[in-house]
Design brief:
288 residues, alpha+beta, Fumarylacetoacetate hydrolase, domain 2, 6-stranded antiparallel sheet, binds 2,5-dioxopentanoic acid, binds magnesium ion
Length: 288
């Protein structure tokens, strides 16, 4: 089952939607049943039972062409895990002699790397621009599965995220990581939150990324969620250790798709990230 937030036409009022189970491209408007917040749905004890009941009701439906997706976050802080794939460890060790030992150690350590990524209001939805820093010369998207957690720290659903990163800034000194990771338009998410699936099902999903420049493909890569070294519960439990999230929190789970070292994003590139069980997140690139 796929949840989303959306607006209709020129309206500004956010609605909460459920993608039609038949997959005929319609979004069922749950707001018509008094559900105006995704955060509150994710708190339901019997989430799939409640969504099953709602999908049986005769609620208004909208064609995809009539709506615009919003980010599937309301008041959730967005965090990210790093060096959870062998490919990420390898690329980062090559990127920086200075930090190689740190990346090597964290890949095998009991405690994962987890860092703050974005305030909810700064997350970019599908269709809008992601940013590359004007003071960076080596910029890449990081296509990542997102764990969408409720206030109890339970993983209520899964989404698609892009952890935009400036590799030259990160590689120069590990202490510059927040500047390499947190800046205007550096995090995109959406369009759906998929609920009612188990970790073992999600581990079968494929993540792919395609970057086009003036209509031509300049990078393509693919991995599977199953390549993530740590369990989802392990990652979520470290995020919720000694910390409360009254509105829940989102956790990007790290990247396993790393373009070759000669690749950097250009303004106007289009970045498409697909996760097989979720859908597609597409953003173009602007300099910020
Ligand atoms: O420490 C660097 C960031 C790692 C990261 O973002 C990733 O592996 O996805
Ligand atoms: Mg990342």
């Amino acid at each position: 089952m796929k949840l989303c937030r959306f607006v209709v036409g020129t309206e500004t009022r956010p609605r909460v939607g459920l993608a039609d189970e038949e997959g005929d491209g319609h979004i069922v408007d749950l707001s018509a049943e008094g559900i105006h917040s995704l955060t509150s749905i994710l708190e339901f004890e019997d989430l799939t039972g409640e969504l099953g009941r709602l999908s049986g009701l005769a609620l208004p439906r909208f064609e995809l062409g009539a709506i615009r997706f919003l980010v599937p976050v309301e008041h959730q802080e967005v965090w990210a895990a790093g060096v959870t794939y062998w490919q990420s460890k390898k690329a980062r060790m090559e990127e920086s002699d200075f930090s190689a030992t740190a990346y090597d150690r964290v890949y095998d350590a009991e405690r994962p790397e987890i860092f703050f990524k974005s305030m909810p209001e700064k997350v970019v939805p599908t269709g809008e621009a992601v940013g590359i820093r004007r003071d960076a010369r080596w910029n890449v998207p990081e296509p990542e599965l997102v764990l969408v957690c409720n206030s109890r720290g339970q993983i209520a659903g899964f989404s698609i995220g892009n952890d935009m990163s400036s590799r030259d800034i990160e590689g120069e000194n590990l202490l510059y990581l927040p500047q390499a990771k947190i800046y205007e338009r550096s995090c995109a998410m959406g369009p759906f939150v998929v609920v009612g699936v188990s970790e073992s099902e999600v581990r079968e999903w494929r993540i792919s990324s395609c970057i086009t420049r003036e209509g031509a493909v300049v990078f393509q890569g693919e991995t599977t969620v199953g390549q993530i070294k740590r369990s989802f519960a392990e990652l979520a439990s470290f995020l919720f250790r000694s910390q409360k999230f009254p509105n829940g929190a989102c956790l990007l789970t790290g990247t396993g798709i790393v373009p070759e070292d000669t690749f950097t994003l250009h303004p106007a590139d289009e970045v498409t990230i697909k996760i097989s069980g979720i859908g597609t997140l597409t953003n173009h690139v602007v300099v910020v």
